[in-house]
Amino acid sequence: MKYIYFVLLLMVATPEVLAQREDAGNYDYDREVLFGINKNTNGGLIGGVSFKIGSAIDDDLFQFFQLELANVKNPKEVRYNTVLGNSYIFGKANYLYAIRPQYGRELRLFRKAPHQGVQVSVLGAVGPTLGLIAPYYIEYSVSRTETVRGQYDPELHQGPNSVLGPGRLFEGIGESEIAFGGHAKAALCFEFGFFKSSVTGVELGYLLEGFNKEIVLMPTTENRQIFQSVYFTLFYGFRR
Predict the structure, then answer these.
(1) I want to staple 201 with a disulfide (CB 3.0 to 4.6 A). Which of 41, 113, 121, 191 is the partner?
(2) Residues in Cβ contact with 194 at an 8 Å cutoff, skipping those fewer than 6 apart
(3) Nearest CA to 108 among 198, 23, 28, 185?
């Protein structure tokens, strides 16, 4: 009789135990695809966007390939409003768009429990940078009846009063120059979400980037060849 009760107990308990084990391990994944929006100390309200594909090496170590597109700004850029209501950046001569393909590794420090909690990991990545230096055009008056569009010139534009506003969208993009460089980053990653198949989180990190020449964003201020920034990226994606 004891054995019968024991067998019945096992029959009742086993599915529940197996379900708990399956549930506990159900958060493991082998591949992920993530999309992110970046904010950093060298960017504006939205500093850039990213696309990331990752895969597992072992239980807690992952590798990833990522592509970032970012707008890099000079920290002294200030927006002005004209009498016509237009907004522009006085003293700015060029945009810098950074295209960053990268390879990295991510180490999971704390696992996320199913349907609750936070997963914490640390990551690092390196890669080349392709810098697109595009002219920033402004429209300014040369007489009471004539206006022209061109880049900021310290000899012509002694103050913001003569500027009427920014140039046309993508004007001068065909005159862009290329700069080559490289970058490296390190970050902490905090992940949330209630389902195995999706993930939401934030990446907080530091990025160092250098180019083969000085990038002139504002002719009258200090310009750099090496940039560094602190950033955070909000991301959302899918796993399996």
Answers:
(1) 191
(2) 115, 116
(3) 28
Structure tokens at 103: 């390879």
* pLDDT tens digits, 115-165: 667 899 999 999 999 999 999 998 887 777 788 888 888 777 766 667 888
pLDDT tens track for 45-74: 889 999 999 999 998 999 999 999 999 999
Domains and CATH numbers, the chain: 30-239 (2.40.160.20)
For residues 82 and 92, what is the distance between their CA atoms, to the nearest angstrom?
Answer: 15
Give the alpha-carbon dihedral of 206, 92, 221, 155, to 10 degrees. 170
Element holding 17 (H helix, E strand): helix 2-25
Alpha carbons 210 and 183: distance in angstroms, whole number? 6
- For the chain, the straight-line distance linking the first and the last C-alpha, in angstroms and rounded, comes to 46
Q: How far apart, in whole angstroms, are the C-alpha atoms of residue 234 and residue 236? A: 7
